[in-house]
Each structure stands twice: as structure tokens, then as C-alpha cells.
Amino acid sequence: PGRRAERALAAAQATHEAGAPENALKLLSIAAAGPLDDRRRGQAALVGAQVAFSMDRGRDSFALLLKAARRLQPYDPPLARETYLEAINAALFAGPLVDDGQLKAAKAALTAPAATGAPRPADRLLDGLTRLIIDGYAAGVPSLQPALSAFTDPDLSPEQGLRWLWLAGTTAATVWDYETWEVVATRHIPLIRESGNAAMLPFALTGLAAVKMVAGELGTAASLLEEVKTVCEAIGVAYPVHGFLLTAAGQGRQKDHDELISTVVLEATRRGEGSALIVSGWTTALLCNSRGRYEDALVAARQATGHPQRETSAALGWALVEEVEAAARSGAPERAADAFRRLSERTGPSGTGWGLGVQARSRALVSSGADAEDHYHEAIDRLGPTRIRGELARAHLVYGEWLRRERRRSQAREQLRTAHEMFTAMGMEAFADRAARELRATGETAPKRTVETTGQLTLQETQIARLAREGLTNKEIAGRLYLSTRTIEYHLQKVFAKLGITSRNQLGRDAFLDL
Fold first, then answer.
1. Nearest residue to 24 via CA among 34, 41, 11, 36
2. How big is the CA angle at 36 (ends 49 and 120), to the nearest 5 degrees?
3. Domain containing residue 481: CATH number
4. Does residue 439 contact residue 415 with C-beta atoms inside 8 Å?
5. pTM above 0.90, yes or no
6. How far apart are CA 491 and CA 476, in angstroms?
């Protein structure tokens, strides 16, 4: 019986990773019938908590992971440390629906024995995150930098990479380190595909979609999210809503964004995935700011930033950016100053062009006269060399708006033209419209937007075209998207017809590089 229980436990872990949570739970019930020693009971508790997290990402899985970590601590300290890291990750998803969840997990992790021998990347990440959560950004960012570097090391083990690259990526985003975020997000997906770990794939794809969104590659982001939906439907789990909200807001799709809020976000909140409240507040504020509805943006931003507990999520930092702009434009200087103070506590220690550039732009919004102009210049100088195209375009936009109010119309037009061109190229339509309105106010008419050829494609067609361009065969694309080969052939023929091409080789032409 003992060996049968151990085999069932190992099978439950493998079945969970393969993306079959219900079957994993059945195997766990066999394992639980025992007999299992205390160490393996802790492992069973861990697998059960992992399955719960993959199915609902709610507050219950946070408590289960914390309990599993404590059970494992006397018998398997290295695994206990990793489980505390999983609990911190689960607290990130539970968000404000668990009172100080990140802080509780970080303090509990301090009771675990320190790593013996050479610390693993996961050990470094745990130590850095606990410092960030407990002591704040000024102390935490220097502690995290060696940890994040470990995840960009070419010699990173596949086991460590497979399990922790997603959390390393979202941590890099939290401390405004775009370069590391992009590297680890890009690196994670091939590892997952090679391992067959379908349960992790939606998170990795969503992470890479967010990377592409921040870089202004909205079409690529939307295509990645279509694959998220396909995978989640195939394995029977709820899909992470965050990326879908961000693309809808970034593209100015009000109706789609509102529908997500009224359906998916409500369902996520019901499950206990409270991070959806922060993300939806942030993306709603982003959408309202893009449309010039600053008072509405201020209300929405407060939904994300107004929770009393300590949060280190990237979305909270990004929501503070929206709150500064909304408050400054709504005649609420005290709110703007408070939001800027909280933001600068996060961006200042980052030392990155992204963080310091956004900080300079936000500082300009709460400043006046020559000081404001100096900060606008700094924002453009810092963001210019980065790949954060959306934030750079917004720096040109708000600087142009400030110049117009200063009656410097000629200079305003230069900034507003640049912003309009950038937003149009990225497909950020609501921001492009805002720039166009400002241009008209200077006496100049913005050029009409032209529909890109790839805009004729549906999201699924774009997704299939992107994979075909990467060199995947029809069979490989079918396996990745859980579709039949015949369906892939059908969609590719439609792609060729719409783009006026006749073969896969032509998908690599310059005109189609933005698929």
C-alpha cells in the first residue's frame, strides 16, 4: 500500500503539470489513503495546493500553500523555501482579498532555514522578495538584482527556469526592469513547451503578451492571448484576465473592456482572485485617461491603489502612474502629490530608464513653469533609448499638451505630431484620438489613420500566421493551438488570400513583420 500511495502521489504531480487538474485530484485521493510518512504528506499537501491554484488562483490556494510550506519545513527545507515562494506568488493573485497576504507569506518565509551551500536562483528570489515586501523598494531592489540576474544566466537549470521564470519576470516588471522581464518571459515559453507542462503555459503566454504590450507591439500581444484562451479551454481552467484587459484598454476598445469587467473580472473576484480588482482599476484608469475622462480615471485608479495592505504588484505601480495624471488633470493636486510620492518610492530605486522616465513624466505633471519643462525633457531623454514606446509616446503627448497651454503652439505641434504618429503606429487608438484633438486645438489637422493590411486578419488568423512565419509546420501549429491540421490549412489559405501572397516564405517580408 505504501508504494501504491507514493506512485499515486508522483502521478498526481505529473498529471497536474500536464494540465489535467481533475485527474490529479483523483490520484491525490488515492495517495491520501496512504500510508504516507510526514514528508510525503507535506508533498501531497503541496500538490493539492498547486492544483487549487491552477484551477482558481483564489485566496484559498494561498492559505493551502502556506500550510503546505509549514508542513514541509521540518522534513524538506529546500522544498519548503520554494513553497513559501509559491505562497508569495499566490498572494500576488489573491491581492486585496487576503489581508496582507504577501506580508504574511514573506514573514513566514523568514522562519525557514537559510539555503545551505550555493543558493539556487529560487533561494535568491525568495530572499529578495521577502526583503522587498517587508522593508520596501529602497532596501528590496538591491537585494533582488542578483536574483534576477540569476534568471538571465545562460547556465540556468531547466528545472529552476521552468518553475520560476514567470515569477522572476513579474518581479522584474514590479521593479521596472524591462530588459530582464523581456529576457525571462521570452525564455520561459520554449521551456514549457519542451516539458509539456500545459498548466504553466497560460501564465507564461500572458507574461510575454504584457511584455509586448508595454513595447507597443499590440498585435503580437493579442495573438499570444488568443493562444492563452485556446490552451485554457483545452485543459479546462479559467484563463488569466489581466492581459485581455490590458490589450482592450491599450487599443481603446471600451466595449470589449467593459464586457470583460462585467463578466470575467466578476468571476475572478468570486473565485478570490483579487488581483483582478487591481488590474481592472488600473486598466480602466488607463482607458479613461486615454479618452480624456480624467475624473472617471481618478475613481478607477483609486480602486487599484486605495487598498490599505502592502502590495508589491507591478499593476499597482502602473495604476499610480494613471492616478498622478488623472488627479493632476482633475484639479486634485493633493491626490496627485500623494500618488506621485508613492510612485517615486517604487521608481526611484529602480535606476532604469523605464522607471526614472515615468517618474520624470509624472513629476512634470505635478510641477509648473520651467521645472515642469525640465522634467518633460528628462522623461523623453530617459524613455527614448528604451523599448517602452507607449510611455515615450505619452511623454510627448503630455509635453505637447503643456506647451499648448503655455501658448507655444509651434513647439506643441511637434510633440503632438510625434505622439500621434507613435500611437497610430502602435494601434493605441484612443490615445491617438486624444493627440489628434490636441493637434486640432493648435490649428493643425492630424493625418487620417490608415488601416494596416494585417488588420484585415482575425486574431486567430494573425496567431496562425505568426506561428507559420516562425517556421512551425501545420501539424506543429495544430498541436500548439489544439486544432486539427485541416483547420490550420484552411486558415492559412485565408491568410494568404487576404495578404495577397501565395506561400509561407512571403510571411517574412518586411511588410508583415508586425504580425
1. 11
2. 55
3. 1.10.10.10
4. no
5. no
6. 14
Closest by CA to 98, choosing from 56, 64, 69, 60, is 60
Number of residues in the chain: 515
- Domain range holding 502? 453-512
In whole angstroms, what is the distance from residue 494 CA to residue 500 CA? 10
User: ∠ CA 95-42-53 to the nearest 5 degrees?
Assistant: 30
The Cβ of residue 418 has, within 10 Å, a number of other Cβ atoms equal to 19
Half-sphere exposure of 349 (CA within 13 A, CB side): 20
Q: Which three cell numbers stand for residue 115?
A: 539555503
268-285 confidence digits (pLDDT tens): 788 888 888 899 999 999
Residue 34 CA from chain centroid, whole number? 40
> Of 54, 89, 117, which one is at a domain's C-terminal end?
117
Residue 159's contacts (CB-CB under 8 Å, 6 or more residues apart) are none
Q: Among 441, 468, 499, give the residue marking a domain's end.
A: 441
Is the same domain home to 27 and 68? Answer: yes
CA dihedral (465, 459, 235, 56) positive or negative: positive
Q: Determine the Cα–Cα distance for residues 83 and 464; give it in Å rounded to an integer.
A: 37
The Cα 171–Cα 290 span in angstroms is: 27
Count of the separate structural domains present in the chain? 4
Query: Which CATH number characterizes residue 201's domain?
Result: 1.25.40.10
Which triple of cell numbers denotes residue 174?
A: 514590479
Q: Are 203 and 108 part of one and the same domain?
A: no
DSSP class of residue 455 equals: G
> pLDDT tens digits, residue range 62-87?
999 999 999 999 999 999 999 999 99
Instruction: Let me know the angle formed at the C-alpha of 371 by 370 and 376, rounded to the nearest 5 degrees.
Output: 95
